[in-house]
Design a protein that fits this description.
The protein is of the alpha/beta class and 135 residues long. The protein has a five-stranded mixed β-sheet, covered by helices on one side. α1 links the parallel β1 and β2. The longest helix is centred in the last third of the chain and has 25 residues. The relative contact order is 0.22.
Length: 135
């Protein structure tokens, strides 16, 4: 394989039931992508947020909703990941998925939000993004 390609990420939240969770879920998204990409170091990819010639991943939380915003018991998330090659040498990709988590309470809502975001991002990266970037 040729030299490893760097991967950078940009994260955003479009719609979230509690704006106070935005910082935590964005951090979770970035950390999950970085961890998964760095597992491929030496196999084709490495993480570098100042990347200029590899891949730019845009992760979007399209929505993070609760069954009851005041006393949530279930959270549902929809996430998209788009990849753009910064060197123009290959095609980009778009993928999306969703997931949910139950057992939510006022005490653990942030932890459960990070859990469901991390799980969906991990599945998208492993199933769609990383295989495409390694082509």
């Amino acid at each position: 394989m040729a030299n490893d390609k760097c991967v950078a990420i940009k994260c955003e939240v479009k719609d979230i039931f509690d704006k106070g969770l935005s910082k935590a879920v964005l951090k979770q998204m970035g950390e999950t992508v970085q961890k998964l990409v760095n597992k491929k170091k030496g196999k084709g990819l490495y993480f570098d947020n100042k990347c200029k010639d590899g891949w730019l991943i845009t992760g979007k939380i399209i929505s993070l909703t609760a069954d009851d915003p005041k006393q949530p018991k279930k959270l549902e998330v929809k996430i998209s990941i788009d990849g753009v090659p910064l060197d123009g040498s290959s095609n980009g990709f778009k993928s999306s998925a969703g997931g949910n988590v139950t057992g939510v309470s006022a005490k653990n809502v942030e932890d459960k939000a990070k859990l469901v975001v991390g799980d969906v991002i991990e599945a998208l990266m492993n199933d769609k993004a990383i295989p495409h970037m390694l082509k």
